[in-house]
Write a structure and sequence with these properties.
heterodimer; A: about 190 residues; three-stranded antiparallel sheet; B: about 325 residues; Rossmann fold; 2 domains; four-stranded parallel sheet; 11 helices; globular
């Protein structure tokens, strides 16, 4: 099962990573997402930005920082750990929990969930379950840096940095300065 | 990660810190509008209590319920145990009903080990206090409370001085605490009258003293132990008044502790005996907080023992796999 790929080196036997987004691309994508979020929601007062650990949190902080600059006031991002809500907990040994930090009451707010890669959609399903127990937001929107397709649930992103058609054999690797020392998105593997 | 929690000595530094860090995250659940996580939905946890308990049983029950597990409470009173049923038959009955975890408190030291090693139950066995042997979750919640108050969240207790005072001979709390605090790098001083120190204490990784006043100035945390009159079959000290004068924590002694030091007690307290009412209700006393923390720590233990598939600890996963089933 190989998805069509326009990249010539995707068919190489040796899994070499190729970079699809560099530091500037990521920066531009986040700036665009920031403006799209503000445009869609008209103002930032009723917004709560929640990143999904670990890289989603870094992205949420970057978007919050850009939003603070545009709106000229302090906007902070929170973190929402979804480990306890995963549907595959019993398939792997118990995992360590990540930090959950909700900056504001989410009742009556518009929550924007932020993650690095949207793939099967199961992480987002878990995040929606987690949100439901924290309050009742007016609306929940989803912003992702990469949408690589292959959804297994009826979930789609509202704001996408880049749509990246991939095969299931390929691996999308997002690296961010905060956790990996540099910014890049690369694809490795493939058949 | 281990599969049973029988002794605080089974935990290495990594496991202990993992439990404490997990508890740190789970503490927040108590302040949410919906105090429930779906993680252990469909799992059955049995509270097998052969000995009376208030806080430990309720704490385990609350922890299991907050993780959505089904809880079956069993107490020896009013069960077939009073007709003479053995631990083995009780355990086999519970196994037949499909218990995923058995939380056992027993008046005989070693009962949880027997239960786990004889494979009478397939579920995880958690020791909730056996005789005068161990009480590992109490040690974990004590370490958790110390970490929060002594500015060591996320790390261990290296270099902290903990003074444990009182009836060491009959205390399972102290045995678990000594093992865990040693693993976490804390320096433990045990203060007790000579009659209440067990044989072989010179092999414990602790310093011992008969003089409470000499051990106060350097303590970061003071843990008072209950004088367990129900286990005492001889006169270990001349009178309650003399014990309380020499080994009780009163306001005068409290004022000699360092400013950051905390006062702990595993409960239940004998007010006026090992601790005066003034000290028990003092702002420096964290005794009520210990109970709150107990629920979070027990949630962490239940989650780590039951939450995932059995096997070695999870490997580091990259962002790509996070979304994959």
């Amino acid at each position: 099962m190989v998805a069509p790929s326009d990249a010539p080196d995707a068919g190489m036997a040796h899994p070499t990573a190729r970079t699809v987004l560099d530091e500037q691309d990521i920066s531009r994508a986040l700036t665009r997402i920031t403006h799209e979020i503000l445009e869609r929601n008209r103002d930032s007062a009723g917004l709560v930005l929640l990143g999904i650990p670990t890289r989603g949190v870094h992205l949420a902080r970057r978007i919050a920082q850009r939003m603070s600059e545009v709106e000229d006031r302090e906007i902070s991002a929170g973190a929402l750990d979804i480990t306890m809500y995963r549907d595959d907990l019993r398939l792997k040994p118990a995992r360590a929990l990540e930090h959950t930090e909700i900056p504001d009451d989410i009742d009556g707010k518009v929550v924007v969930l932020i993650d690095d890669v949207l793939f099967s959609g199961r992480t987002i399903r878990a995040a929606l379950d987690a949100l439901g127990e924290l309050g009742r937001p007016t609306a929940v929107q989803l912003a992702v840096l990469i949408d690589r397709g292959h959804r297994e649930l009826p979930i789609r992103a509202d704001f996408v940095g880049k749509n990246l058609p991939t095969s299931l054999a390929e691996k999308v690797k997002v690296r961010l300065t905060e956790s990996d020392g540099a910014d890049s998105v690369s694809i490795a593997g493939g058949s | 990660m281990i599969t049973n929690l029988l002794s605080a000595g089974d935990l290495d530094r990594t496991d202990a810190i993992r439990i404490l860090d997990t508890a740190e995250e789970l503490l927040g659940v108590a302040s949410r509008p919906i105090k429930k996580l779906p993680t252990l939905r469909g799992r059955t946890v049995v509270n097998l209590f052969f000995e009376d308990s208030t806080r430990t049983r309720i704490s385990f029950e609350a922890a299991a319920k907050r993780l959505s597990a089904d809880v079956i409470n069993f107490s020896a009173k009013g069960s077939s145990v009073s007709k003479g049923e053995s631990l083995k038959d009780t355990a086999l009955t519970l196994q037949a009903m499909g218990a995923d975890a058995v939380i056992i408190r027993h008046h005989s030291s070693g009962a949880p080990h027997r239960l786990a090693q004889a494979k009478w139950t397939k579920g995880a066995v958690i020791n909730a206090g056996d005789g005068t042997h161990e009480h590992p979750t109490q040690a974990l919640l004590d370490a958790f409370t110390m970490r929060r108050h002594l500015g060591a969240v996320g790390g261990d207790l290296a270099g902290k001085n903990v003074t444990i005072v009182g009836d060491v001979l009959h205390s399972r709390v102290v045995r678990s605490n000594v093992l865990l605090l040693h693993t976490l790098g804390a320096h433990v001083t045990i203060v007790a009258p000579p009659t209440l120190l067990p044989v072989g204490i010179d092999h414990w990784p602790v310093e011992t003293s008969y003089d409470l006043d000499a051990s106060l100035e350097k303590a970061d945390a003071v843990m008072m132990l209950r004088v367990q009159a129900e286990r005492m079959n001889a006169s270990y000290f001349p009178s309650a008044r003399e014990y309380s004068r020499r080994y009780g924590l009163d306001t005068a002694r409290l004022s000699r502790l360092p400013d950051h030091a905390i006062v702990m007690h595993p409960g239940p307290m004998n007010r006026g005996m090992e601790i005066t009412a003034d000290v028990a209700d003092h702002v420096r006393s964290v005794i009520v907080e210990q109970v709150t923390n107990g629920v979070a720590v027990r949630m962490a233990v239940l989650y780590l023992l039951l939450g995932g598939a059995a096997g070695e600890s999870a490997e580091e996963e990259d962002s790509t796999d996070k979304d994959r089933v």
